[in-house]
């Protein structure tokens, strides 16, 4: 159960953290939209060919071990005749921990290269005996209204076909991650909740992030990085306490990449750290030293 939660949490954090508590105070923007600078292709914080890898760690008492890894990559493709980005986020347990509880998380998203409008999303999850699959088609030009045509399967509930609400502020997790990297920090105040809206499985969630300030952070095996710290409250449940903050440190430069996260769980602490990055659009100016 804990391995499932840790790997799923890692993919979630990399995809903009869908484990935030609800009950948003809409103080920073309206309609669930993140305050962003220009999202024209030339102004984006990333480019085709960018790659990250992350190590997932678990600590509790005498246990202090890397239990999995995750990767993120983005490339340019043609989608229905238009230029688009294709993002793949993949997470898994290590070979050793596969013997205890095998986890595989595969999130893929297609969105416009100019404007970051989501076009298609797929999720393929395998967690022990549990499995889940999502296929979203974004219907922006429907005759009735805009909506998400969602084909959703879980091993516990079977196959479902649902129509989810869609507006200009609704994203899937990977496209929300890339949108958030273009946040306009001149419009963000410290310790204020800012809303985000995303779809997963058969529902749409209103969540938030909180900017906590700047920190110089040492990332094990990687180096020291000047960062911006963000946080949110975790949902309580079988694994998460719901009482403490999930913390994420983002590079304080034009790339805006996650370099570290930490989250308390009922037994121990889950964390993730960046291992490598390549294909960045801008110089990694926040990197201080090895």
Roughly how many Å is the radius of gyration?
Answer: 18 Å
Distance between the termini: 35 Å
Envelope shape: globular
- Following the backbone from N to C, one meets helices and strands in this order, namely HEEEHEEEEEEHEEEEEEE
* Average residue pLDDT: 83
Count of discrete alpha- or pi-helical segments spanning 4 or more residues = 3
Alpha-beta content class: mainly beta
Tally of strands = 16
Q: Biggest sheet, open or closed, and with what strands and sense?
A: 16 strands, mixed
Query: What percent of residues adopt helix (DSSP H or I)?
Result: under 10%
How big a fraction of the residues is strand? over 45%
Low-confidence stretches: 16-31, 235-240
Descriptive account of the structure:
- This protein has 290 residues and is mainly beta.
- The protein contains three helices and 16 strands.
- The protein has a 16-stranded mixed beta sheet that branches.
- 40% of the residues are buried.
- Residues 16-31 and 235-240 have low confidence and may be disordered.
């Amino acid at each position: 159960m804990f391995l499932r939660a840790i790997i799923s949490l890692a993919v979630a954090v990399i995809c903009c953290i869908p484990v935030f508590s609800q009950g948003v105070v809409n103080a920073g923007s309206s309609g669930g939209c993140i305050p962003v600078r220009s999202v024209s292709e030339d102004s984006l914080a990333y480019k085709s060919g960018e790659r990250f890898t992350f190590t997932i760690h678990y600590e509790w008492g005498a246990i202090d071990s890397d239990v999995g890894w995750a990767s993120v990559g983005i490339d340019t493709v043609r989608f229905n005749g238009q230029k688009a980005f294709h993002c793949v986020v993949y997470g898994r347990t290590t070979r050793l921990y596969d013997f205890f509880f095998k986890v595989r998380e595969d999130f893929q998203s297609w969105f416009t290269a100019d404007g970051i409008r989501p076009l298609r999303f797929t999720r393929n999850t395998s967690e022990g005996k549990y499995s889940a699959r999502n296929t979203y088609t974004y219907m922006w030009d429907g005759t009735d209204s805009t909506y998400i045509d969602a084909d959703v399967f879980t091993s516990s509930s079977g196959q479902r076909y649902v129509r989810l609400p869609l507006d200009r502020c609704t994203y899937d997790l990977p496209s929300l991650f890339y949108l958030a990297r273009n946040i306009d920090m001149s419009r963000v105040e410290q310790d204020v909740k800012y809303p985000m809206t995303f779809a997963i499985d058969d529902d749409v969630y209103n969540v938030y992030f909180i900017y906590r300030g700047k920190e110089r952070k040492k990332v094990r095996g990687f180096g020291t990085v000047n960062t911006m710290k963000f946080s949110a409250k975790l949902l309580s449940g079988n694994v998460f306490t719901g009482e403490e903050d999930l913390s994420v440190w983002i590079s304080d430069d034009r790339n805006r990449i996650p370099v570290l996260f930490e989250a308390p769980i009922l037994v121990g602490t889950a964390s993730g750290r960046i291992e490598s990055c390549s294909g960045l659009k801008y110089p990694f100016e926040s990197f201080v030293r090895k």
